[in-house]
Amino acid sequence: MNSRALLLYSSEPERTSPAPLPDLIPGWQWSIATTPACAHQQIHNHNVRVGVIHLPPSLPVAFDQLETLTASHPQIEWIVAASPDVLSETDVGRFIASTCFDYHTLPADPDRLAVTLGHAWGRAQMRERCRDTSRPGQFGMVGESAPMLRLYGNLEKISNSDAPVLVQGESGTGKELVARAIHRHSSRAQQPYIAVNCGAIPVNLIQSELFGYEKGAFTGANQRKIGLIESANGGTVFLDEIGDLPFESQVMLLRFLQEHCIERVGGHTPINVDVRVIAATHVNLELAVAARSFREDLFYRLNVLRVTVPPLRERLEDVDLLADWCFEVFASEKNAHVQGFSLRAKQAMSRYGWPGNVRELINRVRRAMVMSESRLITAEDLLLDAPSSDTPASASLEEARDQVERDLIEHALQINKQNITETARQLGLSRSTLYRLINKLELKQ
Ligand SMILES: Nc1ncnc2c1ncn2[C@@H]1O[C@H](COP(=O)(O)OP(=O)(O)OP(=O)(O)O)[C@@H](O)[C@H]1O
Question: TM spans, by residue (predicted)?
Fold first, then answer.
């Protein structure tokens, strides 16, 4: 067997003879470290998956250094080996309970220790395999469910075309991710990708932001400005929340889609622009057309290739993968002792309806990684223990979504000391969307 373990032997060699553990366990290769710094080095040099921390009697334990060591190497399963006296110390017990896979009582029982090492190694391997499958797939998206495989198949075909795309899906499902993926896999990948949130630009500025303006076009137009569409020339423009585009601006976009040319505000010369348009909306544009808030002709121009991103509740089998992926991506922010999810937490996640979709999952997991007080994140850490008392069991999807958004935003505002820019960044929202939600949910700032 080539399994390698690390032995962190933290006593001073001149005071205690070296631990005989490695000699007792055949079939294992050992890297020996006498300080946490040396242990970091050994771990970097060797493929270590199991670490044994020997805590000698009557020496103070540098828990802060041990916690840094274990948190920096979440791929390793840790075992504490110590005498019964040391193991009975409260701080040692707390460290083992929060951070370690197991403990071993000294003097060593070689057979038992070999079994514990084997289990720890197996668990580390298993975690490694799960981690492999949680890496984003070829489109940079996490998910292997049937709806996602269908989506990837569609993206493959759409990326090879140059026609406009309409991406539909609920908020937080990954529409922007889909737009980026289409661009990156298209022949325009090396050219600009410009994302515009149509709902975030003040109505009076939309036209000049999208199409630019000439010097002197209006008071304050001291010099020519190139608009967002023109600056994406050769590449792709992603028009998010297209349903929020004011009716008057829709006609200019229609003209651009028909004639592939734009006119800057205050300009009189049409400018040819070669840009692929990907538009996204979480509102039903057919209904908006029926309600006459969205131009029918523009709808048909945009709706050439349509992609629908499935809501998370229709692909609950991906929740596990997404949670593990998220844990890995935000590992540097987590509380040092947090090592993963409890089984109950995973079960609670796979039963939940995720009205806020992947964005909500990311926010809940990130919060839990920071706030959890145990080694494994619990369902309570994810705020998924029981329906909130404010959310009746019969709450509509809309009410449930509002409640979740209210909890997450309130919490993020609190953590970020009411700083809107930081809170918006943490929640993956634009500042204007955050303001809109704060007003809608009547949150106090
Ligand atoms: N399948 C996925 N894999 C990995 N991350 C995802 C996936 N889907 C969404 N995300 C992440 O979830 C968050 C929300 O995604 P995105 O902004 O693309 O959603 P959206 O549908 O455009 O939302 P909105 O309609 O509110 O603008 C982002 O952080 C995104 O990276």
Answer: none
Given a cut of 60, whether residue 19 has pLDDT beyond it is no
Ligand 1 pocket residue status of 169, Cβ below 6 Å: yes
Query: Among candidates 414, 413, 406, which has minimal Cα distance to 441?
Result: 406
Neighbours of 132 (CB within 10 A): 8
Give the Cβ contact number of residue 214 at 10 Å: 17
pTM to 2 decimals? 0.64
The pLDDT tens digits for 310-330 are 999 999 999 999 999 999 889
Q: Which fold has domain 312-440?
A: Helicase, Ruva Protein; domain 3 (1.10.8)
Q: How many whole angstroms from 154 Cα to the centroid of ligand 1?
A: 18
- Residue 172 Cβ inside 6 Å of ligand 1? The answer reads yes
Sorted by sequence, the CB contacts under 8 Å of residue 97 that are 6+ apart come out as 375
The CATH-assigned architecture of domain 146-308 is: 3-Layer(aba) Sandwich (3.40)
**Whether residue 225 has its Cβ less than 6 Å from ligand 1:** no
The alpha carbon of residue 257 and the mean position of all alpha carbons in its chain are separated, in whole angstroms, by 34
Q: Domain residues of the chain, as ranges?
A: 4-133, 146-308, 312-440
Instruction: Read off the pLDDT band of 20 (50, 70, 90).
Output: low
- State pLDDT tens for residues 62-121: 888 888 788 777 788 999 999 999 999 988 988 888 888 999 998 888 889 889 999 999
Work out the angle at residue 240's Cα, subtended by the Cα atoms of residues 235 and 242, and round it to the nearest 5 degrees: 110
ipTM over 0.95: yes
Q: What is the residue whose two structure tokens read 């199409």?
A: 211
Q: Whose CA is nearest to atom 7 of ligand 1?
A: 174
C-beta 232 within 6 A of ligand 1: no
